[in-house]
Amino acid sequence: MSAGDEHSGKVDLSDEPVHWDLGGSQSYGDYLQLGRLLDAQQPLSTEHDEMLFIIVHQTAELWMKLMRHELDSVLQCVRRDDLDPSFKMLSRIQRVQSQLLNVWDVLATMTPFDYSAFRNALGRSSGFQSFQYRMIEFMLGNKNAEMIEVHRRDPQHYATLERALQAPSLYDEALRLLSRRGYGVPAELLTRDFSQPYSPSKQVTGAWLGVYHNAEKDWDLYELAERLIDLDHRFQLWRFQHMKTVERIIGYKAGTGGTAGVSYLAKALRLRFFPELWEARTSM
Q: Distance (Å, rounded) from C-alpha 171 to C-alpha 208?
């Protein structure tokens, strides 16, 4: 190789055993089904920024799919009192949440004029109708039976959401675990109607305080508490960023899904998945 080749920008592949002919093997594009994936962006207008809008939301749905996948396994770990594997999954969920936060930064490059140029093409479609987002909220404990009505047109999604509504959330399973470990969780909370919103309990706050005071003995419960707080905290950041991005792009117009837009999103900022874990901090 001459001195000039080192700076030509051309990589020497002569000593690399590249599979130029794949034979009967699947390709990278085949494995990832990139034909289907990259053909899924079908703007309804000729406006430049509609492609951005579609890709940002499709990307968010893919990250939420991974988040659901990890949450399913975390729930199984908590149910069988095997918390150590769950910490890796919760750590991955934190990083997924960081990616979901970054999605808003990309969308925020779209101006109100850009969005208004194609907004009517959306009709009544809205992120409010996201099946995966609603599943995540139900899995984490924000139960609201009204929310599944918008999914009646899709029987499979409706049935899946109905099952998730009736099932114990991650927080319900965490409280059951505290009880099995000898911490004082009221019996009525362990067998309650899980389709109903959770009501905070002073006894549960006391139970979590007990975990913090016994961190050396029950380190895994202590670690679980901190991972749950981090998950809740990042979810709040996501909701806030969502609200501010919507405010930046459409101001205080109503949402395409029929909600009041920014004022509706502001209501969600008051929600907490794991209320006693926050309350315990005041009592420490």
A: 12
Give the span between the Cα atoms of 162 and 171, in whole angstroms: 18
Q: Are 275 and 208 in contact (CB under 8 A)?
A: no
Interatomic CA distance for residues 228 and 90, integer angstroms: 8
CA distance 206 to 184: 8
Q: Which helix (H) or strand (E) holds 150?
A: none
Distance CA(135)–CA(195), nearest Å, equals 13
pTM for this entry: 0.90
Residue 52 near residue 109, CB atoms below 8 Å: yes
Provide CB contacts within 8 A for 179, sequence distance 6+: 185, 190
Tell me which DSSP letter residue 216 carries. T
Q: Rounded CA gap, 264 and 260, in Å? A: 5
User: pLDDT tens digits, residue range 19-74?
Assistant: 888 888 999 999 999 999 999 999 999 999 999 999 999 999 999 999 999 999 99
CA 169, 127, 37: angle at the middle one, nearest 5? Answer: 95
Q: Is 138 exposed, middle or buried (0-12, 13-18, 19+ CB in 10 A)?
A: buried
What's the pLDDT tens digit per position in 61-114? 999 999 999 999 999 999 999 999 999 999 999 999 999 999 999 999 999 999
